[in-house]
Amino acid sequence: MAINKNHEFEELDGVKCGIVEKNVSPQRVAFLKKILEYNKFTVVVVPSPPPKVAAAPVAKVVEGEETPAPPPPPPEPAAPETFTVGVTDYTYNTINAIYGRLLKTPDGHVVTIAYWQQHEPVSLDEIPYYEEVNSCIR
Known about the structure:
Strand order of the largest sheet: 1-2-4-3
Shape: elongated
Radius of gyration: 23 Å
Order of helices and strands: EEHEEHHH
Structural class: alpha+beta
Largest sheet: 4 strands, antiparallel
Distance between the termini: 47 Å
Helix content: 10-25%
Number of strands: 4
């Protein structure tokens, strides 16, 4: 049971894991796996369970009346193939790792939130706000 939404853990393939992200595409899995393995985490990836489907409504039968046969249920669309990504360090917290500047890219830069969310193709090291202020005082 997670303390809050930012610190989830569960058992994946029989191993207790800290959850990095759920319901991610295969391309996102490759991206996350590359970063996490570079930072020496053991990554566990399992297929996400299919979404729950609502039960079909039941037709009421009234005595003495003929009811038409219910229409056949529509074919269910194929669920997109998604995965759950976790790391064996169940104390892992994505928010702390990114904002604490604990993750590095393979080219040596600090992982920023824009890079993590794949809004930028390259992680540009940002100077933390507190270092900018202190440099002005000197």
